[in-house]
């Protein structure tokens, strides 16, 4: 707690250190004065706790001045210089991300102190850039969030390799690369898991497999932690014992193997925690002392927080410590409780993943608001394969200098890796694999309470009156929560699909302040933009039953149009994008589409039975920002004639109108820029849409949609549907006429009418003008 407060409020760190240190001195003197009484022990424990609180606060106080100075000179300015890479280089939807330390950098003419931690965002990765490398970076910088280890975030505009890794760092990078290369000829998806299971390198895990592993709660298998360290140290001890080496030699062998393993897999928070705990245990063994696992864990956590207080808010570190604590404290009594219903061996096997999931679940909802339903059985099935994959994979990695031996070991590792990947795929295909849960702090607190209640029921029953009362209350709470979750599950998986029309061809997802439009014809699917958040997009696509995207159009690269890229189901067929710089190109490549094309006017193609074409921008146009948005026209094959304007401004709209590419009138218009005031009334008149769709967030700070565009559309008699008021919006055709369904207005009436259909009656409102697919005269029909 003290460490978390110190790193989020660094100005208070010296005072916290002084307060805790002074308190420790006072309690120590009290313990001395009391003597050997029972209270002296209590005061000694309080003294120790205060000392443990003082150390991270003091560490922050010492490290903060250069960090604060770096933020002052770098925030909002261009930063350039040499940086040493100290973290794993990870692929993101924005390109690449890594942690680094300044070597010799400056912001303009102001120098930045050496050793300041920064997060580097790169659109491209220079060859040879690995942990231990030194790179030259030039780019814009801004202050990191309070509590982050990095003081600055640098968006690199140019990255050059200055010096490749040397010595041990170079050797470990070469071994990891050789292991990844040795899996290339093996069948997917098991091949991509091998480096992750062996050394925590998840670069070969594609987006689809990553999502399946997450749904099955198996991602911890590719995050090196205590189990991997225990295997490495155990093998080193066993080998030393076989060679007749004494206790001191065995400890030295174990520590050496552990140090080499940490360098090989890179020092992630979970790895550091496990390695520190293992090292303390071996040192205790060397000194002839034996300590409980819980004491080792507590000491390891205190030592690490004193050295690196920023671990206090690291989710990986918290999950690692929590899972280890659960195995030490909760698993044994849980196994005893389960023995009442199950054989002892099965109860023990089940208690291990169950205890870890019970303790880690509340932390996971902070970043992923859902509870994995099949996590325990999936981990139970994967348990026999994980150690085999770790041992064989590590052997394959170390066999890099002998390619033939490495190839054979990689092939053997593929068997357990394929088994784990198969479990993840099977779980992902099951219904209701994740139960929705509140996110953030309320979700954490709520799940802690529910988890505690469920755990009480599984533990051996107590005999006191208080124990019986607690057990009864836990039963009531658990039953109530289970009933509520089943109700939510039924609504989400049965009622909502039945009350959502299935005959739609154009859908505008409710993704907040952003755009995400789905077009469907004859089983083929086009997605135009992704909205700002992956979770909102993924939820909408799941509700619509969309599992693949044949054509993905990214109109431009503002975050409210591409921020949800991680929610796009893989693989993507064709990806078309607007004008892109190097950073934007990296985002596009990270999607993993089969084909990637920069869009330009006069391009076109087929989507199922419909046809689409690009109207803007022209191939030789030089337009900035929003005015570079792709404009798409699509229609036919059951799709009403639809025009999507991206974020085009009034000047660009006038240029588009003058180009002669518009072929109005249109059935549906996706209004530009979420209904901003920057619109061309002439284009609206020429498009003459029967229905206008506006993707906009409720209560947004921009005042969208603005009265100016709403007045223009109203004057034309155009029906307006907007996501902030209507939620999900579905558009289709029926008997040559355009049909409209709005989630918040029509869901209840659809449930009373023909479920899943379009003819359910809803309260009267402005009719949607429609025209036949043959271009006949427009008629009027009440919106349904």
How does this model look, in words?
The chain is of the alpha+beta class and 784 residues long. Strands 15-14-13-12-11-10-23-24 form an 8-stranded mixed β-sheet. Strands 16-17-18-19-20-21-22 form a 7-stranded mixed β-sheet. Strands 1-3-5-7-6 form a 5-stranded mixed beta barrel.
Which keywords apply here?
disordered C terminus, 25 helices, 784 residues, 7-stranded mixed beta sheet, single chain, 8-stranded mixed beta sheet, alpha+beta
Distance between the termini: 55 Å
Largest sheet: 8 strands, mixed
Structural class, from secondary structure content?
alpha+beta
| Count of helix runs | 25
Round the mean pLDDT to the nearest integer and report it.
82
Helix content: 40-55%
Strand order of the largest sheet: 15-14-13-12-11-10-23-24
Shape: globular
Uncertain segments are 747-784
Count the beta strands.
26
Q: What is the radius of gyration?
A: 30 Å
Strand content: 15-25%
